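Q&A log
Question type: sequence-to-structure
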Amino acid sequence: MQEVRIDLRLPNEERNKEIKRSSELCFKINNTMPTTPECKKLIDELFNNTLGENTVINPPIYTILANKIKIGKNVVIMNGFQCMSAGGLTIEDNTMISLNCVIATNNHDMYDRAVITCKPVHIKKNVWIGVNVTILPGVTIGENAVVGAGAVVTKDVPDNAAVVGNPAKVIKYLDAEKFKNKEL
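Response status: OK
Response body:
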């Protein structure tokens, strides 16, 4: 996976415009009654009307580059979702993300901190992410995986794996056959 480096000292009008748009929409979303059509409309606008069918996002939500986030259908994201998305984030269908999860697709260069280093995060289909999980840049979470509460995911998670801890480690594998033909 190729790392992208962004020097924050260099002007980038397009990036600045998206930061402003995303920040303002997050503020509006987070200060609107959460179950109203107005709030849903703002969430759709934040993600440029690209959310998959039956996807639900519960405020508050925080991101400054929403145009770098792609979310599939039947996804549920609970309150307190935070995403540093400069590297890009893909969340596939039927994923559940619990309260207060953080996904970071970017970090700062250790020696030149005005440079951010970016790697995409990919969450595959039918993943369940527990409360207070942190997922770091460059990670892929495999299909049907479970990430236990409080985990810090620093490396890829295999399909059908359950991981816990800091750093997250595989504690068991789920029976992939039990996921076949399930309506989620």
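Response note: The first helix runs from residue 13 to 30.
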